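Supplementary Methods, section 5.1.

A reviewer requested that the exact input to the structure prediction be made available. We therefore reproduce it here, unchanged from the version used in the analyses.
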Amino acid sequence: MTEAALSGSAAPRTYGNWRRVQSVGIANLGLAGTIVLFVGLIFVVLGLMFSLVVSLGAAVLTMAAIGPLMVRDRHNRNLFQRATARVAWARGRAGGQHLYRSGPLARVPKGRCGLPGVMASMTATEARDAYGRPFALLCQPWVSQVSVVLTTAPDGAALVDTDQLDNWVAHWGAWLAALGNEPGLMGASVIVDAAPDPGTRLRHEVLGHRSSEATALSKTVMEQVIGSYPAGSAAITCRVALTWSMASRAQTGKKRSVNEMALDIGHRLPSLTASLAATGAGPSRPLTTDEIAAALRVAYEPSLAAAVEDVGPAHAGVEWPDAGPSAAQEAWDHYRHDGAVSVSWMMSEAPRGHVFSSVLSGLLAPHPDIARKRVALLYRPYDTGAAVRVVEADRRDAAFAASGRRIGRARDALSVQAAEKSAEEEAVGAGVVRFAMVVTATVMSPEQVPMAASVVDTLGTTSRIRLRRAYGCQAGTFAVGLPLGLVSSAHLRVPQALREAM
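The structure derived from this sequence is encoded token-by-token as follows.
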């Protein structure tokens, strides 16, 4: 027997086999570029029937069209995508879409500080689940979606056995797979917010349990504990947002009302929160409208965090129409809002190879150079029928890419193996989930932005995650990272299928 077997220890479990959605095409063109190439070749051949000049003109136009699609950067974005981002940003800035002003003297209805951008039309309705717990149902009428936000109390990985960690990860995978069977579920997101701890919770806990008969010495010691212990510590909050479609299940084309959605979702929340506890998330419950409004207000104005924590989010007095900022201004590479500056990144590539369960520990942990750091993991689970189509299409695409080269590459061989493994796992009941990540760092002055950007880039490299700064869409990326359940693909002007084909 080996030494590991004699000691009863096992090798740490690793995780991986995630794959980027890729389009089938010649070289780096993708499906859209390949279609343009073949159409251009047809015009070149037809042009030869008239004159050589016409044929050469068609060839030049074809090369001009596919040229920008062939050149890609390290984030797998071609020149056409980068150019369209620049044009969209210039048009939005010329129209004043990068500015937001609210309050009594602004044009916002009723002089309130409402949410900006894609969140402006979002409404909040109070409802109760099957356990009688109140929860806020956030409605996005322009995309016919509703969302519910849950708050959790994770135990953390400190002093936890490896077997228990593996158990939590397994239950988390099962919970995500079960979301694929939730009728009408469009997406889920996990938002982890890390900020300096003002010590409010510790003070309330100590003062709430202090006895009137305590000695002067014990009171003095506890006062010193209240004053010194929070120094250097951090407050980490974790929320889970679930988003459903309001479309009718009977395929009648009629949209369900908010009350119907509240009744339907209210009966599902108890089972969802109960199964979430087995993932290591701890006890979970749905958030009310006042609690979500307070969390959004703190995200836009971090200086209010201590005051909101002192009285509690539910009693902070922040109403839903005042959850947004009083002023905000978007720049190409950052976002200013109510005395703070935020910079957001998007994950462009997941870790290659296999990783341990602690791969995100450094990225999720608070940092002294960042006032608030928010990491949002975005999930879009597939149902059983869609999952089969996805893995089978992935198998075909991987095999086509590997056979399209005269000399095979090691990466192509591994890609084929990974696609085969994913198909096998799905065949025995595993779920298929598309995931993304948004990281937002908030500082209190523009001079701190370069330091925060350097810190996040370093943390992303440590976690083996390639992050791309959200140039030209800082406000939208900031909104996606908030605990609101926004499904980004539903708000894109260019269809998701066309974007993937490029």
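DSSP finds 16 helices and 13 strands in the chain. These observations are discussed further in the main text.
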